[in-house]
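Aim 2 progress. For Protein SDA1, the working sequence is reproduced below.
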Amino acid sequence: MVSLASGSADPLSASGRSSEKLSLPSLQSKMKTDPEGYGTELHLVRSQFYSALELFQQQAALNFSSITGVGADPTVAKDLGDRAMFLAHVTPFYPKQLAEFPSDLAAFLKSSARTLPSGLRFHVTQALILLVNRKIIDIKDTLALFMELQTLDDRNLRKLAFSHVVHSIRRMNKNHKNEAKNRALQNVLFALLQQEDEAKAKRSLITLSELHRRKVWFDDRTANAICMACFHSSSRIMIAVLSFLLDYEKIENDDEDIDDLSSEDEIAKNPQVVISKETAYKAHHKGTTASKKKKKAKLQRAIRSMKRQQRLSSETSNNSYYSPLYHLKDAQGFVEKLFSRLQTCNERFEVKMMMLKVIARTVGLHRLILLNFYPFLQRYVQPHQKDITNLLAAAVQACHDVVPPDAVEPLFKQIVNQFVHDRSRPEAIAVGLNVIREICLRMPLLMNEDLLQDLVLYKKSHEKAVSAAARSLITLFREICPSLLVKKDRGRPVNPKAKPKAYGEVSVLSNVPDIELLEHEDEIDGSEDDESGDEAASISSDDGIGDSDDEKSQYTADGGSEDEDIEDVDDENDSIDEGDSDDCDEENDDEDNVETEELDAEEDDDYEEVSDSSKPDDSAGDIGNEDLKAKARKRKFSDFEGQLIAADTSLRALKRLAEARTSGSSSDLADGILSDEHFQKIKKLKAKKEAKTALAQQGFKIPSSDQLSFKRVDPSKLEAHIRLKLNKEERLALVKAGREDRGQYQARTAIKQNKTGGLSNRQKEHKKYMPLAAKKAKAQRSRQEKNKKRLRSGKQFRGKKAWKQ
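Predicted structure tokens for this construct:
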């Protein structure tokens, strides 16, 4: 602890506190509690600070020894740092007395930062950060100073200044974003990034990248400035920018604090967080004040966990692939400039590969045309090329439907010729087929029938990777162009006449997308109503026919009279049809004729049954029943005519109902105004249609061109199902991993010696006590057995000869 100097005795005695010996920390706490009562002490410490500052500057000017520090008195530097921290702590309580202190401290640090000792420089920087956090100094005035401090060869100071800048800008944009203030800070960092000084440009790039990654400055200006740093004169800056652009999608959002990370781990372990009404009620209404406070805090933590879980799930479920390259203002100029630098640079192969990937990513993302890029890629398309899968992934990424097929065709043919042939390795064939599939997915016009049929033959390969790649190619062309495949390979495509679009062909929407689904749904509803009406009409007509059948069974008639009756019925049906033709259209006439023909056929069947069952015995009985037959005919004709009229009217009513519905729906859509209900219905019908199509395609769905251009191609997917050769270390690791479940190896004799539970029978025989005669007999038997084995060992024993018996 640093006590006050001896020169402070007069002011202290004047204030009546001569007996007290106060240190700076205790004086600081007292001044915070009673600022007005310690004005003289403040004046004393302030004068001591400026005197120490002047003394230090004089010693620095006289005794300057090296660039790393000053050969001055260390006690002066310590007193200067302590008083700077003291004044920084009490500045908010004395704004008028210490109005010039922040600017003087910043000026001192700016002028003497490189010559100060590391300890003093660190303390003065901490004091300045404290003033900035108390909002006494604006971050805009000190940002350039803190960026310059990061360029010094002091690791702790660089880490302190960097974290201060990032957290200050992040805290400033936490609740709401001040665009004017952000723009001023961005201008400072952008100017540093464009300087020729590599150290300043590097620190500016790191700061901008961190703020962009943490989504603090997630705007077009920051992303565009980072991308434009690819053209910096320093190759290190260019490499840093290229690696940031390529690895951006792999960076995880680790901008949460330690508590947030621990809570996210808890969420991962317990994915479902449910808050019941009882828990919320207990937190507000039951228990003591302290217990309710704990319950409320626990409830708030659970609510935050739920919100964070929902945000994380939405981010994972959302298939949005972001890249800073998306915000380029002049993407074509960026690509052309970077490609020209790639052609002329003398960097190592890894750096060229990074530049090539960024160019391909930008071409695919913005769907640009860079015709010289594909012949440049053609130089490196060899199976033995280093990082060939990454290069092929870049080639796939640079292909899209806007590029002319003639420009990509040489590259496509070279991939086929170099990778897919009988003398190539199975890994190369599999990679080549996968690359061909991905290129054809983006540019199907490159494939012709002969080449596809040759490539499809690899489906019979014994290598799993090769056969799987060939089958995936078949699956692709079943959807985009089945006519190129042989009939046995086409399967059952959804659209057998599907063909890829010609180059430059664009489908222009002239109406609301998928609005035809509404009309299709109305037609389906109308057809369902028609089917239900037809069923009802058929049921009623069947009932009427059943009644007429019963009546015909009650009465019998002659064959001739029945024929005449049927002819009369046919005439009446014809007249009914002619009358209906004036009111109905041709379709309804056909339906009526079909139904009348069915009824006539049923009449004929009934007539045959009645004629077969009727047996006329005598003419007197027939003459006596003529009146009854006439009445039956009249009743039969009147019932049959009523049935036909009922069926006809039901069909007319159903037709009018269907026309009214279709006309009503068309009148609703004729004005061109769609309500929210229409859009919701379109969404549901589209989902049903997509589900039906997905079921028909067995889960295979061709992405759109926008999805293909926005998503980055993963090189590892081009090597699917490929088993690479292992080196010796990897093989040994697999062997040791397989031995983990086994016990330690032991000889069988050692296992027997460690056996517990008694001796074996053989061991017991050896230890068994036997008389001398038994021992001799046993030895003799063993000798005889050995002799027999010795005699039989040289030849096979065939038994006794037959003639020797």
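Residues 626-670 form the longest helix (45 residues). This observation will guide construct design in the next reporting period.
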